[in-house]
């Protein structure tokens, strides 16, 4: 279809030169637009939208949902739900309406009421920095979830167990819906079954570690609706790659696992420290890319000001004033998909080099 379009387009030009000029213009436009599409890293989003189920559309229900949405957002942006227990954070959460840009109420076909709450990304990040709270600068990860009830049960209990198992899956989907992680189940093909039959009798942990390795992920979660003796339990419980020995309830399992997964990607800024650096970015071949790079640099929460210092060929050097240490800015830049760190070309300590590569 695309080929036919360009063949037809070629017929409208008097010369190959004119056609190639137009073709390259279209191609460059497409490539420039490609850099502006797609999902941003969560920590750097301009806006956040959190959906919460409401019992009704009255003011009290909306206020409660607004607070819940803000709690979820703070946990996601900081990378830890433990900070919700801090006194200063509790005070912030009690004033959640100050940080909501807008909200709307949606009613689904099944009469389900959803509150959609929008927050300004820069304001939320600035709030964390000002309060000395961490910012999660990691990338969205995938998690393997294994549910034994989906793969083995006796014929006498098929109906009851399958219903409970489906409810467990729905519960997991609900709990993960606003978390910064994607979960998936193994396909349990002949290779997965072989791994299970060989390793699980020896070590369940070894089986799940090997299974997650096959799917290219580091972490897993296994949840049960039956105890060790095969008896159905009132509340499902789980073990995980980070806490594999003791079964705990779903909420605690997910919270502990995500906190552990995120802790190495948290950044705490000292807002009393002011720094300046020359930051050079190569690979900026046109005005659209220049404006995009400029916007990305200025949008970082710790950046106070950014000015163009020098332009040479496809390399632009910015003078950047920011809060915190140089290592803080380096950590934020390393988490950004648009840039790739380059070897130092200057002996100056306050100089950073990157190439612009678009979205990886």
In short:
The chain is an alpha+beta fold. It contains 11 helices and 15 strands. The strands form 4 sheets. The chain has a 5-stranded mixed beta sheet with strand order 6-5-7-8-9, sandwiched between helices. Strands 12-13-11-15-14 form a 5-stranded mixed beta sheet, with helices on one face.
Proportion of helical residues:
25-40%
Going by helix content, strand content and strand pairing, the class is: alpha+beta
Kindly provide the radius of gyration, computed on alpha-carbon positions and rounded to a whole number of angstroms: 25 Å
Put simply, the count of helices is 11
Strand content: 25-35%
First-to-last CA distance: 27 Å
Series of H and E elements: HHEHHEEHEEHEHHEEEHEEHEEHEE
Main pleated-sheet profile: 5 strands, mixed
Q: Could you tell me the mean pLDDT?
A: 84
- Residue ranges: pLDDT <50 for 5 or more in a row? 1-10, 21-39
The global form is: globular
- Provide the spatial order of strands within the biggest beta sheet: 6-5-7-8-9
Number of E-state strands: 15
Question: How would you explain this protein's 3D organization?
Answer:
Helix 6 links the parallel strand 5 and strand 6. The chain is an alpha+beta fold and 360 residues long. The N terminus is likely disordered. It has eleven helices and 15 strands. Helix 7 packs antiparallel against helix 8. Strands 6-5-7-8-9 form a five-stranded mixed beta sheet, with helices on both faces. A five-stranded mixed beta sheet has the order 12-13-11-15-14, with helices on one face.
């Amino acid at each position: 279809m695309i080929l036919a379009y360009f063949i037809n387009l070629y017929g409208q030009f008097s010369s190959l030169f004119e056609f190639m000029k137009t073709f390259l213009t279209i191609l460059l436009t497409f490539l420039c637009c490609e850099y502006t599409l797609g999902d941003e890293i969560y920590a750097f989003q301009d806006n956040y939208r959190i959906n919460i189920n409401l019992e009704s559309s009255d003011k009290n229900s909306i206020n409660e949902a607004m607070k819940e949405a803000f709690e979820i957002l703070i946990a996601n942006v900081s990378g830890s739900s433990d900070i919700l227990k801090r006194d200063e954070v509790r005070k912030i959460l009690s004033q959640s309406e100050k940080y909501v840009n807008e909200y709307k109420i949606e009613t689904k076909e099944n009469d389900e009421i959803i509150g959609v709450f929008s927050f300004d990304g820069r304001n939320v990040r600035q709030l964390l920095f000002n309060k000395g709270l961490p910012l999660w600068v990691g990338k969205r990860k995938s998690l393997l979830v294994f549910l034994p009830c989906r793969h083995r049960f006796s014929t006498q209990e098929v109906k009851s167990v399958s219903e409970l198992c489906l409810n467990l899956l729905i519960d997991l989907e609900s709990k993960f819906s606003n978390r910064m992680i994607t979960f998936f189940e193994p396909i349990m093909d002949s290779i997965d079954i072989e791994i299970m039959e060989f390793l699980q009798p020896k070590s369940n942990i070894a089986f799940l570690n090997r299974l997650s390795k096959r799917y290219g992920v580091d972490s897993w979660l296994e949840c049960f609706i039956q105890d060790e003796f095969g008896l159905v339990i009132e509340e499902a419980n789980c073990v995980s790659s980070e806490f594999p020995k003791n079964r705990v309830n779903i909420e605690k399992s997910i919270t502990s696992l995500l906190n552990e997964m995120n802790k190495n990607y948290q950044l705490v800024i000292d807002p009393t420290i002011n720094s300046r650096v020359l930051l050079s970015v190569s690979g900026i071949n046109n005005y659209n890319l220049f404006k995009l790079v400029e916007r990305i640099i200025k949008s970082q929460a710790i950046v106070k000001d950014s000015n163009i210092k020098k332009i040479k060929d496809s390399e632009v050097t910015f003078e950047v004033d920011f809060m915190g240490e140089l290592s803080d800015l380096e950590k934020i830049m390393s988490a950004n998909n648009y840039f790739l760190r380059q070897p130092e070309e200057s002996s100056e300590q306050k100089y950073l080099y990157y190439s612009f590569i678009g979205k990886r």
